[in-house]
Amino acid sequence: MTFTRKSIVALIGAGLLSLGIAFSNHVEAKTLTVLVDVSKSNPYLTNEAMSKAMTLQVIDALSTLSQGDEVIVQTVGSLHASQNLENLRLVIKRHNRQSVSKALAKYLLTLPKQVEAQGSTNLIAWFGRHAPNCEAGSIVIVLSDAIEASEYVDSASLLSGKQALPEPHQYVALKGCTVRFIGLGAGRSDKEAHTLRQAWQRYIELAGAEFKAVLL
């Protein structure tokens, strides 16, 4: 039997509801937003060891959440790809943390086989279009090699240091959040990874958020 991405979401959702996890639009609780870069350059899609390592980092982050906090998983890549409009939402309840952990791990580990790799990476556009509840001290985890490839910057120029990321505009609502890149620079030289780290640290801190990076 073949499972599509939508069927996996539906099955996970149904199973979680039976275990007491509800879908919620509650905005007061802290949110753990997991952005999964599904562009062609991200080793998460093609390297099983890399996807496992990234998934473990996300599961570890669940320990920072309390009852009522929410987990949102969303893909990011090409700007207008319809599959990036879908997301998985889970809410931490009193006795379901282990169930959330297992469901989240299953979703992230099977996702590479469910999505079609996209041709660009629009992280800057995502940050400008979404407000991840930062006033509650929320966390944004970005599973990505962090190579922005969009209308804002040429990926080769970014990697070489010849072009910088633009400064965050007025609609980037990250103040109060922690933004953690996992896999930044994966598959690139150490020099390129260092260049990417500096570029994103500058961008995230200018936006008023705390920057962290895990290089795998």
From TrEMBL:
Leader peptide range in chain numbering: 1-29
Which organism does this sequence originate in?
Answer: Alteromonas alba
Q: Which UniProt keywords apply?
A: Signal
This chain's protein is named VWFA domain-containing protein
